[in-house]
Amino acid sequence: MQPSGIITLTTDFGLADSYVGIMKGVILGIARNATIVDITHQIAPQDIHQAAYIVQTFGAFFPPGTVHVVVVDPGVGSKRRRIILTTPVATYVAPDNGVLTYVWREAIAQWSAEKCVVHNLTESRYWLPHVSSTFHGRDVFAPVAAHLALGVPPAQFGERCEEIVEAILEQPSRGRHGELVGRIIHIDHFGNCITNITLKHLKDAGIGERMVAQLIGQRIDGLYRTYSDVPIGTLVALIGSSDHLEIAVRNGNAAQTLGAGIGDTVRVFPFMHDAS
Questions:
Q1: Which residues sit opposite 268 in a β-bridge?
Q2: Is 276 within a domain?
Q3: pLDDT at res. 272
Q4: Collapsing DSSP states into helix, strand and coil, what is residue 269?
Q5: What are the residues whose beta carbons fall under 8 Å from the beta carbon of 173, sequence distance 6 or more?
Q6: Is 222 exposed, middle or buried (0-12, 13-18, 19+ CB in 10 A)?
Q7: Would you call 241 helix, strand, or coil by DSSP?
Q8: Does the reported pTM lie above 0.85?
Q9: Final residue of a domain: which of 161, 184, 213?
Q10: What is the pLDDT of residue 169?
Q11: Whether residue 237 has pLDDT greater than 60
Q12: Average pLDDT, whole number, for the chain?
């Protein structure tokens, strides 16, 4: 796989400080012609589950050979590994703390473990000369990404590993009445509450468009195709662009309307069940 020269950045650094800009400076100091794309820097601080969800939503939309850097790293400075994950179409650079869980699982399912290779980042000649104990995004991940974008093979950065650390990411379960019980795992800029319940989960549970969702004591009837299928200001359940069930308010903010937050429980019943 030839490098595309594109590097994406996903972090929990926010935009109020210089951290993101510094990482870009390090990358461009090594790979001057690299194209850097900001995915988001608004991951909730240290939220590995949210990061894992975000990371699995965008990789398919970049050219083969893109390098994706993910820095959500509550264990920075500890003995946790730093890794490169290479799939047949992309390369990921991240702490080995679970942020690549969904990407890893999907890649294994699509291409098999033999075609998804992990290397431990132990070759310090590809890092900055001085490595702080608190900013590996600058000192390790950014320079490694730049060298990868220039065509340095992943095997040169360290020994191969057989697997990665997988976060304990809660999956939907079945409730006492046969309903699906999930949780909110992300709230986007619009206040849409995105759950860990996917379209496949609904189909496997035999729950179709005639369904009832329950969140923070509110009942949402039916599964709709678009936000505009309901009146303005109305709660709506639909499958979003990442194939996850989300609860939204047309032209409004569902999280604020409901007082909902990440981790809150969502229950989905077949329509004939009385969810009240």
A1: 180, 213
A2: no
A3: 60
A4: strand
A5: 180, 181
A6: middle
A7: coil
A8: yes
A9: 161
A10: 78
A11: yes
A12: 94
